[in-house]
Structure prediction request, 152 residues.
Amino acid sequence: MRTIILAFLALTMFIAGCKSTQKIHVVPIQPIPMAALELQETYWKLTELLGKPVVLSEKMKKEIYIILKKEGNRVQGFSGCNTIFGQYELKEGNRITFSGMVSTKMACPDLAIESEFNKMLGAVDNYSLNGSIMTLNKARMAPIARFEAVIK
Prediction:
């Protein structure tokens, strides 16, 4: 009798475990409130480079992004094929500079966007922040790069 009860319980647990009645709920991305957004510690996805939209292509492993870490003024990110690291410095008047940038050395079929992105980081000298959009600029010229904040 005990064996029958244990077998019944095991069978019930097995059937309940196989039951896939859970519904998958897709949660839409919510806009980031301006007050909650900070330049540092935010995942900034590149959306435009040198006036052209940046779209994730089949050749890219993942989207291009940067994160400005508060600790040690470190910048980390991904430039299309390689992971990047370095330092940044914030100065009065929304001024920013990147230095000591290094990257991994993965072999990739197309490094054009990555090359432009890395070159841009060495050229920019200021930023602007408007809601969930950050732009990196050189002097008073049009934005060189445009980023969108992403909640991860």
